Amino acid sequence: MVERRNAKAHETQHFDETAFRPIDHTEIRWMAGAGFMINSRGIVIMVDPHLITIKDDPLTSEEGLEMVVDYPIKAANVPKIDAIFYTHSDADHLGLLTAQVLQKLNPLMIGPPPVFEKLVRSGFLPDHLQVCRYGDKIAIGPISIEVTKADHPWQLLNPVLYGKPFRSGDACGYKIITADGTVLAPGDTRLMEEHLEIKGIDVLFLDVTRDAYHLNVHGAIILANCMSEAFLIPYHYGTYNAPDSTAFSGDPEEVFCHVTDREKRERILAPGQPFCLCSGKEL
């Protein structure tokens, strides 16, 4: 029996502009929370980045959550970014303050319709915005991205308070195909049959929260064991001090103790720590 606790992420490994330079492989960094950065041979993309804290309060994220670890780089210190992929419009994934800073670098900002609407209503010009839908294929230089399904109607917890639940197409995930391997960023989603049909994944971003509208522990175990050759990078835990919120709490050990070949596959990264792939092999 695994002790039920809320794990804290490892101490942040801060990085600088050198992490954005052209390289001869692919580097993946968990950015804390739900965010990731991928530098694939000099092409830089981010998924759901949050890189800003409230002014004069380095321990409070831009959406008002108390942090227990630092972000590995500040948005203002990011020197380049080619594209940002948003899985959905929730504030802990689409951080408007972070987006406002990063848009100065002219990245393409991509997400399902509620993301587009939220950005436009917040004053973003549509020139660098792109709506995506399930099955779309998007090229960012040599990187190919396929939009995958997600099921995340968390507003059902209290529709009167939270409004209309997300419907099909309002949230998504991304299958990211690089020269060095294929990454699945499923986003916030309950486990779907379609997830079990996705093949050829080398790296799986694994949501380890206990929340019923995420993979949750049981769904994460099933997906991890289905993608039996993939390296597993846990996320959506250990970043915020919110013990009463299942969406921000969890422990990778609750999942990994039931995963086949865990010693070979689990990669519990500190925020900012690089995971390196080259031609399908870990460096």
Please provide a written account of the structure.
With 283 residues, the chain is of the alpha/beta class. The chain has one domain: Metallo-beta-lactamase, Chain A (4-Layer Sandwich), CATH 3.60.15. The protein has 7 helices and 14 strands. The strands form 2 sheets. Strands 6-5-4-3-2-1-13-14 form an 8-stranded mixed sheet, with helices on one face. Strands 7-8-9-10-11-12 form a 6-stranded mixed sheet, covered by helices on one side. It starts with 25 loop residues before the first strand and ends with a strand.
List the helices and strands and how they pair.
Blueprint: E1 26-30, E2 36-40, E3 43-47, E4 83-85, H1 96-102, E5 108-111, H2 113-121, E6 129-131, E7 137-140, E8 143-149, H3 159-162, E9 172-178, E10 181-185, H4 193-196, E11 203-207, H5 216-226, E12 231-235, H6 252-256, H7 262-265, E13 274-278, E14 281-282
Parallel strand pairs: 3-4, 4-5, 5-6, 10-11, 11-12
Antiparallel strand pairs: 1-2, 1-13, 2-3, 7-8, 8-9, 9-10, 13-14
- Which homologous superfamily in CATH is the superfamily? Ribonuclease Z/Hydroxyacylglutathione hydrolase-like
Q: Average the pLDDT over all residues and give the rounded result.
A: 95
Total discrete domains: 1
Radius of gyration: 17 Å
